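Example S7 (structure tokens).
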């Protein structure tokens, strides 16, 4: 279940850390000092037991092929401006500025299924962006139908690294949560994956970190990876929801064959993936 934070705690802590800044009570800061973030989120995340992405499931090859191909395609929405990430300054970003959403159909067409996908940088006191997706497929007895495909969405940040050093090691921690439903008939298949990725856009879209973090349909994102970030390079930091379904003509059953992977509410909270922040701890 998704947890809520208390607005007044966030406002108070942010005011204390940034006494010269003013903002509306319902406004979420773009970033805060990492110490302030850890005080703000101590009740929502187990900050003493974060999970190393290197110990998580590797992204399956067939998924990598789909999401890597998308890197060379125009995004579903324009991002905000590329933000600067200052090398050596420990900070946590609380607002997303980038994302994408799309589907990839392997059998049938998009109109043959219920493929829903979207993302945005909408904010409230709890979250700084969201990504939602849903794949729902049905094949009926005697139809000869076979449908397969995936709906995908991600939300995160695009940064240009600034600094005086050529490169520097950084521990990057993703925070958020996700909630969904996955079900299928015995002759069908549905899956979901929560994927975290860092892409070096300045080096031919090289992946410098990725992994699958979910072991159940709902949970918390509290995962880190230690990477080397280079001066003047542009990076994408992605929190992704992958929903997938496969159905065939359900012979010899007289019933419909269904596959549902549902992370869809088309907004903050409810089903879907919600972005809480990305922390940068320079080594």
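Recovered sequence:
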């Amino acid at each position: 279940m998704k947890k809520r934070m208390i607005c007044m705690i966030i406002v108070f802590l942010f005011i204390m850390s940034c006494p010269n800044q003013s903002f509306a009570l319902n406004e979420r800061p773009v970033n805060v000092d990492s110490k302030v973030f850890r005080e703000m989120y101590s009740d929502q995340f187990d900050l003493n037991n974060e999970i190393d992405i290197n110990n998580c499931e590797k992204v399956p090859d067939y998924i990598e092929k789909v999401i890597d191909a998308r890197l060379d395609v125009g995004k579903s929405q324009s991002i905000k401006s590329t933000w600067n990430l200052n090398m050596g300054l420990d900070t946590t970003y609380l607002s997303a500025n980038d994302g994408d959403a799309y589907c990839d159909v392997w059998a049938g067409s998009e109109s043959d299924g219920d493929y829903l996908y979207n993302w945005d940088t909408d904010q409230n006191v709890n979250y700084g962006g969201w990504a939602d997706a849903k794949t729902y497929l049905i094949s009926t007895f005697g139809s000869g139908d076979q449908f397969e495909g995936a709906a995908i969405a991600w939300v995160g940040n695009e940064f240009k690294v600034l600094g005086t050093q050529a490169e520097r090691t950084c521990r990057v921690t993703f925070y958020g949560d996700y909630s969904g439903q996955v079900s299928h008939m015995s002759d069908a298949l549905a899956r979901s994956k929560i994927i975290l990725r860092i892409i070096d856009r300045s080096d031919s879209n090289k992946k410098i970190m990725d992994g699958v973090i979910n072991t159940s349909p709902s949970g918390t994102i509290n995962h880190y990876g230690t990477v080397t970030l280079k001066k003047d390079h542009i990076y994408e930091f992605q929190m992704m929801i992958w929903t997938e379904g496969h159905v065939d003509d359900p012979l010899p059953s007289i019933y419909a064959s269904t596959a549902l992977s549902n992370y869809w509410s088309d907004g903050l909270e409810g089903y879907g993936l919600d972005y809480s922040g990305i922390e940068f701890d320079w080594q």
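Notes on this example. The chain has a mean pLDDT of 86.
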